[in-house]
Amino acid sequence: MPDFNKDVSRLRSQIAALKEQLQEQENGVLPKAAALQRAEASVYAFAADVDFPAHHFLDQERSHLVNPTPQGANGAYALLCKLFPEQVIGLLTTEIKAAYAGGVTIADDKERGKMEAKFGELERQEERIIRQAAAVGVRIARRADVNPEVLLAS
Predict the structure, then answer these.
(1) Whether 81 contacts 88, CB under 8 Å
(2) Is the pLDDT score of 139 beyond 90?
(3) Are 122 and 147 in contact (CB under 8 A)?
(4) Residue 34, SS3 per DSSP
(5) How many C-beta neighbours within 10 Å does residue 51 have?
(6) What is the structure's pLDDT at 114?
């Protein structure tokens, strides 16, 4: 008689490992080139929002102190982006490259799709073994997190 418990344990070990990989993919980051491009675009977008109100200096009714800094939470950052875009991009590039050098998981939809398909196949194999065991009187408890579609498929 086959060792159903051993077979299910082996599959559950594979399922757990694949589940962990899927979680890493879910929390994955953009490819480095896309992150660098996003940083540069962000700097220029913030810089574009900065307007130096020269007309405020001309107005006789205003105070002699004119604050050209954009208001709001990103005001100082936007002003830095306007005045020193290349330096801000350089700083962001250094930080982004350091983050990628630290070892990150790159999100990959194709790879995730392959892993999800493999995950489904492992769950179907597990269910087949559990049902084969039940047919010969061996009871094996199902995992609490098994996909209900797998249970209903047969």
Answers:
(1) yes
(2) yes
(3) no
(4) helix
(5) 9
(6) 93
Q: How far apart are CA 73 and CA 101, in angstroms?
A: 30
Cα–Cα distance for residue pair 59/47, rounded to 1 Å: 25
Which tokens in the block code for residue 21? 């990989």
Nearest-angstrom CA–CA distance, 117 and 123: 10
For tokens 């609490």, the residue is 144
Q: What is the mean pLDDT of the chain?
A: 88
Report the C-alpha gap between 143 and 154 in whole angstroms: 17
Lowest mean pLDDT among 21-25, 64-68, 70-74, 79-83: 64-68
Q: What are phi and psi of 109, to 5 degrees?
A: -60, -35
Residue type, 44: Y
Question: Residue 96: what residue type?
Answer: I
- Please write the tens of the pLDDT for every residue from 40-68: 999 999 998 887 777 767 777 766 666 66
